[in-house]
Design goal:
alpha/beta; Rossmann fold; Arc Repressor Mutant, subunit A; 3 domains; six-stranded mixed beta sheet; 18% strand
Length: 354
């Protein structure tokens, strides 16, 4: 392994133009978690390239040339001999052991219990981060975001290749059962969906045990390929499922429902801002800390909106809702309501707000 370590040490890291993210690496040791193409490798390389080349070692643990036992045995002396201060282990798995270095960076899809490392969770780009990839910010930016989603790599993929590109990315990152689960989650995006329902559907087309299905479903949740949203004050109720990125919907399903895709977009912005939220009957998102309701209405019609507000008045009154925000594609304004303030805000303004 000494020869391979020397190769890693001498190889120059290459990073195309880096766009700053809302998270960054400083002098501490970190575990960086995120799904495929979320930017883990670029974040690490951008930091390493700010250091003196001889002070760090970058290793991609997925390299099939690595004999893990021999690698673990050779690494401590190699780091000591070359005075390595910073060790970065990309695509890390627990079989790898850590030598004594000043700073340790590990990146993986799964989160591991490494209490001496701080955790950074990376998601695909949110709307504000996405704008850094746009040549200019105008009215077309939001439509572009709807088309591309939050995977930065999609800016380089030709329009006619995007669907198959995403499918190949997912197949490379997931096993067969996980991939089949993702297809059903895409079909039921922004709707209530349980692991049992998925099991009942999948067992009709493939041989699978309930135990295997539940483990795969949980793995997708742990790796953040899917997100589950609780019903308020009903933790045992069926949760709503959202995809890690809206672009996956069209890559895995031919069914079109822009309203549900738009709701998933809003959810991801809430997720990435660490906003506590829940759903309830007739209510897309309830934000208890701000006594606020979010309604996702991409093409709001005031007449229908009034009817919607009437249908949820009991919830508004019971929980003392002070603010109702209706998120749209481009409509802006306000309407009068006896119990709460109702603002109509375009998605781009809402997503870039406080």
């Amino acid at each position: 392994m000494e020869i391979l370590l020397e190769e890693y040490y001498k190889t120059d890291l290459v990073l195309e133009k880096f766009h700053q993210r809302k998270v960054s690496i400083d002098g501490g040791s970190y575990q960086i978690n995120g799904i495929m193409q979320s930017g883990k490798t670029k974040l690490i390389k951008n930091y390493l390239l700010s250091l003196k080349k001889s002070s760090y070692l970058y290793v991609d643990c997925s390299d099939i040339r690595i004999d893990i036992e021999a690698f673990n045995a050779a690494l401590p002396s190699f780091c000591n001999k070359n005075k390595i201060d910073v060790l970065a282990l990309d695509n890390y798995t627990p079989e790898f052991t850590f030598p004594n270095v000043t700073q340790l960076l590990v990146a993986s899809e799964l989160h591991y219990e490494l209490p001496y490392l701080q955790t950074i969770v990376l998601y695909p780009l949110d709307y504000e981060e996405f704008l850094a990839y746009e040549h200019k910010y105008d009215s077309s930016a939001l439509n572009h975001f709807v088309q591309l989603g939050g995977f930065a790599v999609m800016h380089k993929v030709n329009v006619d290749e995007r669907t198959l590109f995403l499918q190949k990315m997912l197949r490379a990152s997931l096993d067969d059962v996980e991939f089949d689960i993702m297809k059903l989650c895409a079909k039921f995006m922004s709707q209530k969906l349980s692991a049992f329902t998925i099991y009942e559907r999948l067992k009709l087309t493939r041989k699978i045990s309930k135990d295997k299905l539940y483990k795969s479903f949980e793995a997708l949740r742990e790796k953040n390929y899917i997100h589950l949203l609780e019903k308020y004050a009903h933790a045992r109720a069926t949760k709503k499922v959202y995809l890690c990125d809206t672009s996956i919907k069209s890559a895995l399903s031919i069914e079109k429902n822009f309203g549900r895709l738009f709701e998933n977009m809003v959810y991801l912005e809430l997720l990435k801002s660490n906003t506590e939220c829940y759903y309830d009957d007739g209510i897309d998102f309830y934000l208890p800390r701000s006594d606020e309701i979010l309604l996702c209405k991409p093409f709001a019609d005031e007449r229908r909106l009034f009817k919607k507000l009437e249908s949820i008045e009991a919830f508004i009154f019971s929980y003392g809702i002070r603010k109702i925000t209706v998120i749209t594609m481009n409509k802006e304004g306000a309407i009068s309501h006896p119990l709460s303030k109702v603002d109509i805000i375009p998605f781009d303004i809402w997503a870039l707000g406080d």
